[in-house]
Amino acid sequence: MSAHLTEWTLRRLRAGELPGGEARQARSHVATCAECQRVLHGLEEEQARFEAQVPFERFAAGVTLKETETKKPAARPRVNGLLVAAAALVLLTVTVRPFLEPESTNRLKGGGASATLRIGGEGPQRAVLPGDTETVLPNERVRIGYTAGPHAFILALSLDDTGEVSPLYTTEDQRSLRVEPGDGRHWLPDSVRFTGTGNERVMVLLSSEPLELEVVAARALRAWEEAGHQVSEMGPLELGGEEIDWVLHKP
């Protein structure tokens, strides 16, 4: 190879995603190319910075378990309970696709508001782009961060392909939480581990007034029905404020 490798190729090389022959050719090139070595080193530093922002210990500090059963689609919203376990968790060494984007944060239209979702627990942490479908492994956990912008309240819930609605972050009386003070990014407490199989749509709603979980769940179920019971095809809930969604696939 006479030309430099693209950054995407170097990312895939580092992640172990290149086919055998292509990987050998890429490693041979990097061994003799100072510029590609510099870029590869920069990618390693980028991953280290990313993981330092939300250390694994913070993922393991608390885990919210969402129990999902295979059931027939519901005729009305059904809201799961959540269990919180404050137990030490062991980092398992399993190769998964590492973080590939510098930030993967959705910048919303509402005056600097943004939201991000990160996965950690088995291998390198990674962020999920809004609107993307990302596989989350059984022992991996999810954390949600946000920058509130002009909004005073936040609510997070999920919906799976069976029509099961789960509150992820609400008050005890099932309303939106008040956002943390300050302009920077804040992380919702604990981490979430989804059980079961299939697709799960995670929804975060930022609003100027608190939302009722029952109202949000009903609107989510209606959007699910309109999408043919496929959470990956759902449209926005249109409840005012700002909404950000991700789809997680549970193998």
From TrEMBL:
InterPro entries: Anti_sigma_zinc_sf (IPR041916). Gene3D superfamilies: Anti-sigma factor, zinc-finger domain. This is DUF4384 domain-containing protein.
